[in-house]
Amino acid sequence: MQTYFPLLDDFKPFALTEGQKDQLSQFSALVLEWNQKLNLTSITDPEQFWIKHIYDSLTCLPLVFAFGASSVIDIGTGAGFPGIPLKIAYPEMRLTLAESVNKKADFCRLAVDTLELPNVTVIAERAEMLGQHPAHREQYDWAIARAVAPLNVLAEYLLPLVHAGGHALAQKGANVGEEIRIAENAIKLLGGKLEKVAQIELPQDFGSRTLVTIKKIKPTAAEFPRRPGIPKKTPLS
Q1: Is 10 among the domain residues?
Q2: What is the pLDDT of residues 75-119, one digit of tens each?
Q3: CA neighbor of 215 nearest in space, from 156, 171, 169
């Protein structure tokens, strides 16, 4: 995968060290190795994997760095995307990886231990539970999710976890205009304000992505997030 490192020149001022490049390669190899047992990803072609997982995860980096992020929670992280690549590239952050599927959470622990990443916590729990837990509610600078749920549902997962002045970041596909329109009231109700919508083109014609940034402008009302399963079953409108 060394071939794909020049693509990271897009993410200035982040010049990856050789050690960070090695960690990204180790992580990629680890995911693909364990994928045979745990079905972590449907993308196994090395080029597609690099661009659609590693590069795609790192598209968050300039935003997170620009606004500052000492503490980040990655909701529905799966095999550790985008959280682990971001932690490798931005080692100063304190990272929490939240994944409700135990076998995927166990893999994330294995990856964190193998790569010797400091200040990373892995939790096998649903976002709705974490959002009501005092140790996590409104404790983070950033709450991030990648392809987890529609934006009105995602807002209820993410915004309760960030403090006022913090941010939620949703990694979405190319066409999110209607999702944003539907989610406007939910974002406001949860204490947020849409701040930035950035279109990202993946290299080598692998498609477009959209980064939706929401700023937390006031505390989230105590009733949110609702009980597990309710945000998805009955989204805020």
Answers
A1: no
A2: 999 999 999 999 999 999 999 999 999 999 999 999 999 999 999
A3: 169
Size (the chain), residues? 237
Residue 34 domain boundaries: 17-219
Which one-letter amino acid corresponds to residue 145? A
Global pTM?
0.94
Sign of CA dihedral 187, 208, 72, 230: positive
Distance CA 192, CA 213 (A): 10
Residues with Cβ within 8 Å of residue 64, at least 6 apart in sequence? 72, 86, 90, 93, 142, 144, 169
* 205: Cα within 13 Å, side-chain hemisphere: 0
Q: E strands, 26-89, where?
A: 71-75
Task: Give a yes or no: residue 2 inside a domain.
Answer: no
For the chain, counts of helices (H) and of strands (E): 10, 7
Contacts of 134 (CB under 8 A, 6+ apart): none
Q: How many domains does the chain have?
A: 1
Average pLDDT across the chain, whole number = 92
Provide the token pair at 187.
């974002």
